[in-house]
Structure formats: structure tokens, C-alpha cells
């Protein structure tokens, strides 16, 4: 029955009966304040999600670009055993997720070498790497929970506006003592708009959340691999000294 009401309202609008204007300003003027509040809330949610998307896209792009540069530069420094130079290279590529992890591992290794027993040096560096991976992972995921929340709740916020629109439609029937489409077209149009906006906000947020989550998982794999390679480097370095 609800689908039939939607279809009838669209037919009425397409035929140009003059009962309802289909431009945004006309629809806004016809909305009651509860529906307007719903639209404003969804506008804020949309702006928030777009902000998160832009922030994550810029951060991930910079991380990917600087990581390529860092890996090329740090490999030579480590081959020559220049740990201080490797740390300096990491500090010049602060946006790289791999550089953050490697810098922490190198710093922990150097610090532990002068403070703990020989056999505990690598273990101390490993613990430092694990802490750094967890911290960087949290930084990469910052804001993604907001996208998930927007993607899951925006349709329901739009549905709330839909319910309000249907209520207004039946109020129009009661007030005008009429049952024609002209009496309910305004409320149905209001319901259609809030539903459409809810989907318009939710769908990009869900797409972006899935995309960025996959990116974070790929970064996690890269950080784990870099950590293991660095641990192997430390073990080989200690064994060579003996």
C-alpha cells in the first residue's frame, strides 16, 4: 500500500497538477519542522562523512607515497649498519606507516643494547615494534567508525523522516476532508525526499568504509612484514657481532 502511495504521488507530480512543486526549495517550504530537522541532521552527517573520506584519502595517499621513498632509502642505510641514519630517514618520512614502525624498532634496539642483557635486546625491540604497530593501526583507523555509524544509521534517520511525511499526509486528509492525491501529495513528497537523502548519505559512507578498511588491512600486512624483517635484521646483526 505504501508503494502504491509513492507511485501515485510521483504520477501526480509528473503530470504537473500544481499540487506540489518538485524543486528543492518548494519541497523545503512544504516540509514541517520535524522533517526539516531530519534533513539538517542528514546534511551534517553527510558533511562529516565527506570530511572523513577526504582526511583518510589524503593520509593514506601520503603514507603510500612516503613509504615507497622510505623503503628505498632505509635499505641502503641498514645494509651499511648505519642505524642513526636509518632513524633520520624515518623522521623525514613521518607520514609513512612503515617509517613510524621501523623508527620505533630501531630506537628500542639502540636503547636496549646499552640497558639490558644481550639476549633481551631483540625481545625489547620486538615489544617496541608490537606497540608501534598497534598505535599506527589505531591512527589509520581514526574516523572509520564514524563512517560505519553514518552508513548504518542514515537510512533509519531517513526512515524517521518518511514516517513523519506519511503522518503529515494523513493529517492533510483529515484537515481537508478529502481523500484525493492533492491532499496527500505534499506529505508523500516529503517522505520520498527524506528517504532519498538517507540513502544518498548512507551508500557512499558504506562504500568508503569498506574501501578504507581494506586499505588499513593492507597497511597492517606491510607493517607486520616490516617488523619481521627488522627483527631478522637485529638477530643477524647480533649474531655477526658475536
Summarize the structure in words.
The protein has 242 residues and is mainly alpha-helical. Helices cover 86% and strands 0% of the residues. The protein is built from eight helices and no strands. The longest helix is centred in the C-terminal third of the chain and has 61 residues, at 181-241. It starts with a helix and ends with a helix. Mean pLDDT is 81; it is low at 1-20.
Keywords:
rod-shaped; 8 helices; disordered N terminus; 242 residues; 0% strand; single chain; mainly alpha
Per-chain topology:
Blueprint: H1 2-14, H2 24-30, H3 33-79, H4 83-92, H5 97-113, H6 121-141, H7 144-176, H8 181-241
Helix pairs in contact: 1-8, 3-4, 3-7, 3-8, 4-5, 5-6, 5-8, 6-8, 7-8
What is the compact description of this entry?
This protein has 242 residues and is mostly helical. The protein has helices spanning 2-14, 24-30, 33-79, 83-92, 97-113, 121-141, 144-176, 181-241. Helix 3 (33-79) runs antiparallel to helix 4 (83-92) and helix 3 (33-79) packs antiparallel against helix 7 (144-176).
Strand content: under 5%
Distinct helical segment count: 8
Shape: rod-shaped
Instruction: Give me the strand/helix succession.
Output: HHHHHHHH
Unreliable segments of 5+ consecutive residues: 1-20
* Distance between the ends: 82 Å
Mean of all residue-level pLDDT scores: 81
Strand element count: 0
Q: How many structurally independent domains?
A: 1
Main sheet attributes: strand count, strand direction, barrel closure = none
Provide the helix percentage. over 70%
Instruction: Determine the structural class based on helices, strands and strand pairing.
Output: mainly alpha
Radius of gyration: 29 Å
